[in-house]
Design brief:
The protein is an alpha/beta fold. The protein is built from 21 helices and 28 strands. Helix 5 runs antiparallel to helix 6, helix 8 runs parallel beside helix 10 and helix 10 packs parallel to helix 11.
Length: 595
């Protein structure tokens, strides 16, 4: 027996622009039943899941890719926790908060993480899939009898549980709160620990500024401090790494850990696998079809949870949720196959001085068929180097050869333009993209075709990032400069883009420079690396390009972190601080272990 899921993306469904193919070609409609109709109220298609036979013809004929039809195992029908309405997203099963532990939620964007947060924090009452006649609390508690979640929901019902939530989009905090960093912390500090949090998160200089003047990283850490300083039973952090450099991510991890140590329930959604590995005691996977349905797995240990996610197969539940597994290559990539002298640009020692900041960059060269990674703390001049190479900024000493063509994807993306994605991509390509070779080589592997008819201003953060990367790669240039391409992307998209960029650069003899703070992504993507060191906001110093292993070792040493290879997936894993492996590797000077 199967349980049918029919979901309509209301943003993509445009009945005025199509010939209502879904209604016309539906075989159930042809037989005289009303399976797909046009809802006159909302002027969108509506599918009757009870009548639908799951043939999938409507999915194929819809010109805007607005329909998803999935047949699920019938057992799942009884596990439905919430559904928003007809033909809309539904969630199956829930993760269980654990006192004194950090539970990491790992999955693609659009799998229901925000629904999970809202239900477990008491902001959304689960309707068990009955959106027309939602159940009362007694029925919900009966549904959960004999499970750990029953006592959690009893506390929600009796208003005995309080939740403290760090939202994904921290700029909403600045919009909602008019005041300084100090005002925000003082408003929420119920535990009397604001001083320690300000020091741990490096927020001393952000206290007197209005929230609207703070950078993304400062706002992120301030939001984390405000959430951690509340005295509640349940804490939830949605993507706490965004905008922060690796050093700041480590401080954030310590703050989140400290809550579990005092017996609190903590849940974290995070797409930086290094940080998730470092943070979590347990992992629960979310899998399914983005924006259609999400299923929460049983609880797993951190190591097994991440490996299962990379494999795309849940052995305990015998479920394959992705048709390919992500693998990590042990060999350090090298560009020896490209002849010496195939450098596309060389630069001398460069210096740039601003009134309160200066940066010095050691000479280097960029070679054909190579991805050059750039790592280091925030405010050391990484973006300045990128801008000097791209010709956007001029160095005060040293000169860059301007003969090569460069495409630059900036760190902060503009989403306030009201044009369709296809128009933006046509412009980047210099000609019509549909049916072109570039569409096949770049847009299909990055799964962007579905977004063609969406307006840029309606894209999510992850969609906007993918479009920006694609628009950069479509330009006919010698060097692609990408500043923080991982921001807002989920783990799958990060790995897909890293592997795609590697292949693209090698296959077409191109060159890319990538700045990012996701260590695992940088390890996966880079052939060689530049490390930035110095005092943030005061002075920065960049090394010449170094072999990846040497650069990673130097960078990890500055973080006081050591990496080992996971014996199964070969992905880099962070050793727990002060563990036997951590001490052994540090004693031998091998912070980055490649064997």
């Amino acid at each position: 027996m199967t349980h049918r899921v029919a979901v309509l993306d209301k943003d993509l469904c445009q009945p005025k622009k199509c010939g209502l193919e879904c209604i016309k070609y539906c075989p159930v409609n042809k037989s005289g039943a009303d399976c797909i109709i046009l809802n006159e109220e909302v002027k969108k298609a509506q599918i009757d899941e009870e009548v639908c036979n799951g043939c999938g013809i409507c999915v194929k004929v819809c010109p805007f890719d607005a329909i998803t039809i999935v047949n699920l195992a019938s057992e799942l029908a009884s596990d439905k926790i919430h559904q928003y309405g007809p033909n809309s997203f539904r969630l199956y099963k829930l993760p269980t908060p654990r006192k004194g532990e950090v539970v990491g939620l790992l999955g693609r964007n659009g799998m229901g993480k925000s629904t999970v947060v809202n239900i477990l924090s008491g902001n959304l009452k689960p309707n068990l899939g009955r959106y027309e006649n939602p159940p009362e609390w007694d029925e919900i508690l009966k549904y959960y009898s004999g499970t750990e979640l029953k006592s959690h929901f009893e506390k929600i019902k009796n208003k005995q549980i309080r939740a403290s939530i760090k939202p994904q989009q921290v700029h909403h905090v600045a919009q909602a709160f008019d005041g300084t960093g100090k005002d925000l912390i003082e408003k929420y500090d119920e535990r009397g620990i604001s001083r320690e949090l300000i020091k741990e998160l490096g927020l001393e200089n952000s206290m007197e500024q209005n929230l609207k003047e703070l950078s993304g990283g400062e706002l992120q850490r301030l939001s984390i401090a405000a959430v951690a300083s509340k005295d509640t039973e349940f804490y939830f952090f949605d993507e706490p790494s965004s905008y922060n450099d690796v050093f700041q991510r480590k401080s954030v991890a310590r703050v989140i850990h400290s809550l579990a140590k005092i017996g609190k329930s903590v849940m974290v959604v995070e797409h930086d696998l290094t940080l998730l590995d470092y943070l979590s005691d347990y992992i629960e996977l979310l899998y399914g079809e983005p924006a259609a349905y999400g299923i929460v797995s049983n609880v797993l240990s951190t190591k097994i949870g991440i490996n299962v996610f990379l494999d795309g197969y849940l052995p305990t539940e015998n479920v394959r949720f992705r048709d390919k597994k992500f693998s990590f290559d042990v060999s350090s990539t090298s560009t020896d196959e490209f002849q010496e002298g195939s450098e596309i640009m060389a630069y001398p020692k460069l210096e740039k001085k601003y009134p309160s900041f200066s940066v010095t960059i050691e000479p280097g060269r960029v070679r054909k068929g190579e991805v050059l990674g750039i790592m280091g703390a925030n405010a050391l001049g990484k973006t300045t180097l990128m801008k000097m190479i791209a010709g956007v900024e001029k160095p005060d000493s040293g000169e860059i050869d301007k003969k090569i063509k460069i495409a630059y994807k900036p760190q902060y993306l503009q989403n306030d333009i009201d044009v369709e994605v296809i128009t933006l991509l046509d412009k980047a390509n210099g000609s019509q993209i549909e049916g072109s070779q570039e569409e096949e080589q770049i847009l299909e592997p990055l799964k962007i075709k579905k977004l063609y008819n969406k307006s840029v201003k309606n894209l999510s953060g992850g969609e906007l990032q993918k479009i920006s990367v694609a628009a950069c790669l479509l330009q006919k240039v010698d060097l692609y400069a990408l500043d923080e391409p991982s921001a807002f992307l989920d783990v799958e998209d990060r790995i897909t883009i890293a592997k795609f960029l590697q292949k693209f650069v090698r296959s077409f003899g191109k060159t890319a420079i990538v700045i990012d703070h996701d260590i695992q992504l940088m390890d996966l993507i880079s052939d060689s690396m530049i490390i930035f060191e110095g005092v943030s906001g005061v002075s920065g110093h960049a090394t010449p390009p170094m072999p990846k292993a040497d650069a990673m070792n130097r960078f990890l040493k500055s973080l006081d972190m050591s990496f080992r290879r996971d014996e199964k997936s070969l992905r880099p894993r962070v050793n727990k601080l002060e563990s036997r492996l951590d001490k052994n590797q540090k004693d031998s000077g091998n912070y980055y272990y490649k064997g």
